[in-house]
Amino acid sequence: MRKNIIALLLALPYLCCLIPSAKAQVLGGKNVFSFLDLPVAPQVAALGSTNVSLQNNDIALSSLNPALLRPSMDQHLQVNYTNYFGGVQYAHALFGYHAEKYQTTFAGGIQYINYGRITETDATGMAQGTFWPRDMAIQVTASRRYLERWFYGLTMQYVHSAYQQYKASGLAFHVGLNYQDTAHHWQAGLVFRNMGVQLKTYTKGNQEPLPFDLQVGVSKKLEGAPLQFSATIHHVHQFDVRYADPDFREGTVISDGDTARTGGTADKIFRHFILAAQWEIGRYIELTTAYNHLRRQELGMPQQKGMSGFSGGLGIITRRLQLRYARSWYQRSEALNQLGINLPLKEWRY
What we know:
By secondary structure, the chain is mainly beta. The chain is built from 4 helices and 16 strands. Strands 1-2-3-6-7-8-9-10-11-12-13-14-15-16 form a 14-stranded antiparallel beta barrel. It has a two-stranded antiparallel sheet with strand order 4-5. It starts with a helix and ends in a 6-residue tail after the last strand. This is Type IX secretion system protein PorQ. Keywords: Signal.
């Protein structure tokens, strides 16, 4: 059964090419509240921003798949900070609680993005003042066990954006499943991300969809070795996720590095994959690395891709503290740095 599940997950991107609705689209710029897909924590970023199956004691993984929230994360408090590109800064906090009476684990969190002070001008360029655009998401997650190996979870997020006089709000839902075989050290996950609706639109009558994504993945820890590998597939519902610009012909490359529908079938399939590995060194050190092929193809500069698409992370894990750092390379000269701390508050009681 395990081999059948893995084979099905790996074949899904190819099967999607048989679906008429799975046509090429531009992934960016077609949805509202796209900030929901930003990596909120260092381990999330180190795993390539998407992973629905890897299991350890980091509560941040529940932001990728609510079914990864576990009773062992009871009273875990995590705070993360990200210095994003262009002076943008954002923070994320999450707290877990296990309700033994209901056999359910809950988590509550908030994500806040500050885009800095922006000068407001009129059509002639005259300054009219300043404003501070911002995004925010407040979430509640619940996770339960089914039988011995299955877990399921649900996350609900209230989302709010304010860009000067333009404001919008909405509800987003993430539904996840996780199958965990501890005897053979492997896990599988399935997530429906960003299902929901706008409650208030930026402009009247302009309803926009949320950045929906169907994701699947598997993780396997080696027998007798502290090394775990993961393969995650995103946008399973859409086979061709290449950048498609109507102003450019098939096979051309834009000078700023964005691809214009280049590559064959193998490239189309591999753009869905994010590959990751995690290595536990001794009791306290955790190393993570990942490769995101879509990010490398879309953001890497031609002839100078460098480390584009790669990411790595370092974790210092003790009984009372989890301290993590991650660095993600988007372009050869542009990388994202993230810091996070996880405090198991139970361990601080005397």
